[in-house]
Structure formats: structure tokens, C-alpha cells
Amino acid sequence: MASIVRDGDSAIIQVPVAWSGLAMAHKVRHEIVAAFGKESNELMDAEESATYSLKQAVAEEPDDAVHWHQLGLHSLCTRQFKASQKYLKAAVARMRECNCAWSNLGISLHLSEEPSQAEVVYKRALALTGAEHVHTIFSNLGNLYRHLRQYGQARAMFAKSLELRPGYAPAFNNLGLVFVAEGKWEEAQYCFNRALQADPLLDAAKSNTIKAAAMSRLCASLSSCIIQDRNLPQ
Question: 173 Cβ partners below 8 Å, 6+ apart?
């Protein structure tokens, strides 16, 4: 239960705690503004406020890995990959067993086209992550292998993720993308439909379902034309 400080009340406000709370408030504001597509000026203002307060929280308690992780996560969400890697590395340097920071560092390296480093970091996160969340790391590894066009390894990682968490929508969606890359449209549509059954709000799966169905019809039409052409008298 929170205690409300009223005018005139004597209270000692710890500066690090105040900056940390303000940082979280600004970070939430930035996420809300970004999610609801507000004007670019408002989004930039929210982003700058969050960054400033997160950095102040770090300055007040530079040995606190949580503050570094939050700053790194914010930078990752705003697609400042190099900055996010700097802050997330600072987080894991201060708390070597912080699996969340290792996982987010892997994502940042992956998105900034550094696959070999991303793989090493993901595997480090895998070794540290408990049973409750390990399926997400396997799914992230699968996505990395998919981008590297190592489709066999990607399928194996997604299968492991789904074995640990049946119905995990992101794994089904990403497995569907592997089948798309391989031209296996029926398998792709099955995976996208399973993703939507698990999470009806997963927009990526909705979009992928429509695209896969369209490509399946197109390929079927082209195949039919080729067959008919071959049957014409020469």
C-alpha cells in the first residue's frame, strides 16, 4: 500500500528512488504515445523525457544493474541499437546472472546485423533462464537462424519452444515464416492460424495469414497455367 505525502508532512525523499519512479513514468508515457500513433513532436518529447530521466537514475546509482537494463531496453525499443548494447552490456557487467538483460542484448545484436555475437549471447541467456521463460529464448534463436536462412536449425528451435510452451503464438508465427521461405504455403497457413488461435490480437499473424493465402492461390494458379500450356499441341 502506498503512502501519500501531503503538504506539510515531514518525509525524506530519496533522490535515486525519485528519479527511478520518474523514469518509469516517462517510459510508460513514451510507450503509450508510440502505441497510439500520436504526433511526431509528442513522441519525440516523450522519448527524450524517458531517456533523460533513465540516465539520471543511472547517474544516481551507477552500480544498479536494473537502471542500466531499463535504459538499454528503452534504447532497444526506440531502435537505438548501439546505445542499447552499451547499456545492456553495462547491466550484465554488474549482474552476470541477469537473464533478461542477456536476452535483450541478444535481440539488439540480432537486429543490428551481428548474428554471430547474437547467437553467443542468446545461448548465454538460455543457460541462465528458468523454465518459465526459456521458450522465448528458443523462439528468439529460431528467428535468428531464420534470418540466416538456416531453416533446419530454425525449425528445431521453434519446435523446442512449442514443446516447452504449446500454443506460444510468436513461435508459431515465426515457424510459419520459415515455411513461407521454403514455399510450403499450406504448412505456413496452418502455423499462422495456430498463432491467431493462441493470440487473436497478434497483428503479424493476421497479416501473414492473408499474404500466405494470397501466395498459395497465386502459386496454384501459375501451376495450373503451366500444366495447361504443356498439354497444348506443339
Answer: 191, 192, 195, 202, 204, 205, 208
The pTM score is 0.77
**What is the spatial distance between Cα 60 and Cα 176, in angstroms, rounded to a whole number?**
46
> What is the rounded CA–CA span in Å between residue 110 and residue 128?
19
Rounded Cα–Cα distance for residues 66 and 101 (Å): 9
Q: Which of 23, 50, 18, 21 is nearest to 34 (CA)?
A: 50
Grid coordinates representing 124?
548465454
Give the SS3 label for residue 2: coil
Render pLDDT for 130-144 as a digit per residue (tens, 0 to 9): 888 999 999 999 999
Helices 203-231 and 185-198 cross at an angle (nearest 10°) of: 160
DSSP alpha helix (H) spans, the chain: 15-35, 40-60, 65-77, 81-94, 99-111, 115-128, 134-147, 151-164, 169-181, 185-198, 203-231
In the numeric block, the cell 536449425 is attached to 153
Look-up of cell digits 508465427 = 173
Q: Categorize the per-residue pLDDT at 177 as very low, low, confident or very high, splitting at 50, 70 and 90.
A: very high
Quote the CA–CA distance of 29 and 43 in Å, as a whole number.
Answer: 9
